Amino acid sequence: MDFELTEEQRAFAQTAREFAEGQLAPHAAQWDAEGIFPKEAIAKAGELGFCGLYAPENAGGLALPRLDATLVFEEMAAIDPSTTAFITIHNMATWMLGTWATPAVREHWGPLLTTGEKLASYCLTEPGAGSDAASLKTRAELVGNEYVINGSKAFISGAGSTDVLVLMARAGDAASGAGGISAFAVPADAPGITYGKKEHKMGWNSQPTRTISFDNVRIPADHLLGREGEGFKIAMKGLDGGRINIATCSVGAAQGALNAAQQYLHDRKQFGKPIASFQALQFKLADMATELVAARQMVRLAAAKLDAGARDASTYCAMAKRFATDAGFTVVNEALQLHGGYGYIREYPLERLLRDARVHQILEGTNEIMRVIIARRMLDGDATEVIR
Q1: Ranges for the Acyl-CoA dehydrogenase/oxidase C-terminal domain (predicted)?
Q2: Smallest Cα–Cα separation from 314: which of 384, 367, 373, 250?
Q3: For site-directed labelling of 324, which of 29, 75, 296, 298 has its Cα 20 to 30 A away?
Q4: Chain Cα centroid distance, residue 58
Q5: Of all helices (H) and strands (E), which one includes residue 120?
Q6: CA distance 320 to 327
């Protein structure tokens, strides 16, 4: 068991840090305040391979382990969790398309997506199907050599500004449950697609969120990903990695907040001395650092389990998502508290990090659903011996 990173992994992380400092840090506050979707910056991330980190090589990706991808995402999220979170979603959708698309679809979209020239959205959630994803109602009916899609999706990141939609729709009958769901690659500008208003959100303001409606949208039959009925399995495989990604964004946000807090404790003076000299604040910083290291190691453990194809990888991913997003938000909140009133104003990054990190406890499966997944496994007879 080796907890040390390799030189190659450190190099990836350093490249991501330099990119974040050069391309994200100067603009993150403006993107948040003005609701700007920074497609040019994301394309620059694509030039470094960051838009196809774990997509297969035959789709133009780097095919890196999930563990290596977390190193890149963490460094970027320490500066801008919102933009980084979209890049992680794009990576997930790109991996799904690259892994399950037909050769023709993969050859067309793969290089465009992995370079960041084009962007992807992931479309699973519906107005009436959030945590209960298997109950989704969007339908895809095979008519001749085309699928005809009708329905709607909600809370879709990037919607209206991306180029391809990785869509989950029901190709079976209405009572077919998870087994009736299939996955599709849908051009985002296909006739019959309409986008709702841009949602006004608490955070994640550098990426648009909209509903999407599908009215007799026709796509070629070869835009099916995998086989009919495999969509829910594909979605869940995608979400295992997505949960690690969002957990990593929380770790990154927490690291950015911890960096700011440490510096502030040295710079701020009260009662004639730096507030770093007050033991109560030292203890708070110590607890923040401890929680952050624990969260980071849990995320990396889950990533390693997923890379190894471990039987219980999904359980570890759920654990990492639950723990890291809760702990990450707490660390950011404590860092804001250490800044006092300054933490609450936009001159400092704390309030933005806090707003961006809050949604991580909700999406990719709420943390309550993560507890359901974990508990379901832990009630098995061998769980306490296997899950360690």
Answers
A1: 229-379
A2: 373
A3: 29
A4: 23
A5: strand 120-123
A6: 10
Domain boundaries, the chain: 7-119, 121-228, 232-387
CB proximity list for 220: less than 8 A, separation 6 or greater: 145, 146, 147
For the domain made up of 7-119, give the CATH fold: Butyryl-Coa Dehydrogenase, subunit A; domain 1 (1.10.540)
Q: Which of 364, 147, 344, 93 is nearest to 243 (CA)?
A: 364
Give per-residue burial for 286-309: e unless 16+ CB within 10 Å, then b.
eebbebbeebbebbbbbbbbbbee
Any residues with CB less than 8 A from the CB of 97 and at least 6 apart, and which? 59, 105, 106, 109, 110, 113, 120, 164, 166, 185, 225
pLDDT greater than 80 at residue 1: no
Q: Which amino acid is at 83?
A: T
CA dihedral 159→160→162→168, nearest 10 degrees, is 40
CATH 1.20.140.10 fits 232-387, yes or no: yes
Longest dimension (CA), the chain: 80
d(CA 309, CA 4): 21
The residue type of 387 is: I
121-228 and 232-387, same CATH topology: no
- Please list, in sequence order, all residues whose beta carbon lies within 8 angstroms of the beta carbon of residue 347, skipping any fewer than 6 positions away: none
Cα→Cα distances 264→270, 285, 323, 348, Å: 12, 11, 27, 11
Please tell me the distance from the alpha carbon of residue 326 to that of residue 90, in angstroms, as a whole number: 23
Strand, coil or helix: what is 181?
strand
Which two structure tokens, joined as six digits, stand for 225?
A: 């990903």
pTM of the model: 0.96
pLDDT tens, residue by residue, 8-20: 999 999 999 999 9
364 part of the active site: yes
- For residue 136, the one-letter residue type is L
> Which of 230, 276, 250, 283 is CA-nearest to residue 356?
250
**CATH 2.40.50.870: does it fit domain 121-228?**
no
Q: What pLDDT score was predicted for residue 173? A: 79
